Every structure is written in structure tokens, then in C-alpha cells.
Protein: PaaI family thioesterase
Organism: Nocardia uniformis
Amino acid sequence: MTQQDFSSIRSMADVTPELMTKFSEGTFTDLIGLKFTELTADRVAAEWVVTPQQFQPAGIVNGGVYCTVIETLASVAATAWLDGKGTVVGVNNNTDFLRAVREGKLRAEATPIHRGRSQQLWVVVITDERDRTVARGQVRLQNLANPT
């Protein structure tokens, strides 16, 4: 799927988690193995398996991986909520790293805190297989209207 294929989608309601995962092929989120599992205007969820390629030198998942997942889920969720009325760009990503991870499957879930005319604020929580919070982030996004 190309950028042009994605831009031809009229409504984010037509985008399934599988289609979003396919659209991400060849991107950094594909490189880390991120797979979308839920995609609605109110919640976006995804998961991935930890691999050594995601590690920093101490042998734990690099914080940049968490920041990427958090920014990605918040952006997809914010775009789904706008539903074709425009696009979004991240203006702030604040991520807290709470637990070191060396292996297993991680899950992330984005939910809204605020969705307004000009900006949105989403929280994303990443958990491990035992439902322990590994990282938590907030992303503020600017809503950009489609050109007329």
C-alpha cells in the first residue's frame, strides 16, 4: 500500500487494524514489528514482540521505541477522530519510562483526554504480558484543516 492508496481513503471508519498495519509496511513501526489490534475514533491499540534490535546498550528496550509507539498510536487515534476533516501533527510527546523490559510481548492503548477544535491530547499506556505498566505517555496534537 502506498501513501497515495492511504490518502484515497474517504473515512477512517473504513480503516481496519489490519489495513493500518499494512499501510505501515516499510516504516519504523514496521521495523519494530508493531501490529494494530484495534482502531476506532475513541481507542487505538497495538502490540509488538520485544527483540534485541530494540535494545539500548544495557540490554533493555530503548526509550525511543516507546516514544515512537506512543506518538504513532496517538496520531492514528487523533486522525481517526477527525475522520477526514483534516490531518494532525504532534506538537508535544511526554513519555515516562516505568519498567525495564528485556523480552515478551508489549501492548499499547491510546485513549483521549481532550479533543477540541484546534488540538487534541491523548494518553497512551504500554503494558507487558502481566498487565504491568511499562511506559506511559501523553501526546498533544494540532488539528490541521484540509485545504479548501
Q: What stands out?
A: The chain has one domain: 3-145. The radius of gyration is 15 Å. DSSP finds four helices and six strands in the chain.
